[in-house]
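Lab notebook, bench 4. The sequencing result for the construct came back, and we need a structural model before the next group meeting so we can plan mutations. Quick request posted to the team channel:

Model the 3D structure of this chain.
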Amino acid sequence: MASELTPQEAARGALRAGLPLGDGRHEEVAMTANYIHSVISTLRELDFGETPPASSYRAGQGNADATV
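Done. Here's the predicted structure in token form:
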């Protein structure tokens, strides 16, 4: 991660979005945002190759005996 969100930055961002946080919530929100960012960063590194986008998936079609 390039730089982690600090509790003060989380408080400013929430206030700017119209979601003021209670004093005890800044650190928790920053930790949660940093965790979400790390998960998304990991997902962006995955190579999906020739996997079609989800919009082209049709439920109920395909090989019913495929293994995972």
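The mean pLDDT is 85.
Will bring this to the meeting.
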